[in-house]
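agent> Task received from the user: take the single chain below, predict its 3D structure, and emit structure tokens. No templates, no multimer pairing.
agent> Plan: (1) validate residues, (2) run structure prediction, (3) serialize to tokens, (4) report one or two observations.
agent> Step 1 OK, no nonstandard residues flagged.
tool_call: predict_structure(input=
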Amino acid sequence: MTNSNEAALDPLETPYASTPLQSDSSVRPLPPDPDSPAWGIGGAVLVWIASFILIIFMPLAFLLPYAASKGLHLTDPNYVKELAELALGDKTAVLLQVIALLPSHLLTFALIWALVSRFGKQSFWAAIGWSRASRYEYLRWAGLGIILFGLGTVLAWLLGTAKPTQLEQIINSSLAARYTISILAVGTAPFVEEFMYRGVLYAPLQKLAGAPVAVCIVLALFTIIHVPQYWPNFGVIGAVALLSVALTLVRAYTHRLLPCIIIHLVFNFIQATILLIEPYAQRAIPGGEPVNPTFIILPLLHFLR
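)
tool_result: status=success, residues=305
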């Protein structure tokens, strides 16, 4: 005799009633949530510190052999002073340090991937917030990058100083350095910085303390690390702060990292384009004022301070 309670069961509400029990392995796990990362503040800070160590010591790995070929030896009592003069004044030495940024960025990428993906145990792109968007949305974020570049230019002009920054001196040291920095500014810098600040650092901070606190801390860190590099050019520092505010707010608003990368990439692409055409523009305009396109190419040269 059939139990009336059993007959009343709706099979649509009990999908496993008439089928064999399935193992947990057959259930597809949910994708990682960029706002609820598997890594914590401790891991994020360690990767951030490691990125600075790479930026400092990788250029030295390129510079020291060249210094030895120029006759500088560790036993020399004035070695540090002579090495600093070589690093800042020799065109080849400057170029080698700029080139060293590429392996620094690549190793930083590797550290970020290991932390975010848990050594490949989860999708890196999903965990970091890299989700696709419509064509209209791509254009919107690209347009915001152009607007921010214009606002940053005005701010740098209003608050800036005639004293050249270290980055300007390096770019003007040689065409090779100019081209290398332009390539890095588009090819690696936007990705390294967004993965690090709006990805690795922002996500656990947002999870722990909320979006407002995370926004404030990340934009402060992003701005403060540029102060020694651009001091005393308050216009450049102000432009960096403006970009940092915009990028971090976009990350908080969209809950994704891809819009930040698009904005940053467009911003740096304009800078790199100006860098590449500036020498030829000066030749075409006799007696014209030099173009100052380097007010805010994002941190590429922390090692020369």
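agent> Step 4: summary for the user.
The longest helix spans residues 41-69.
agent> Done.
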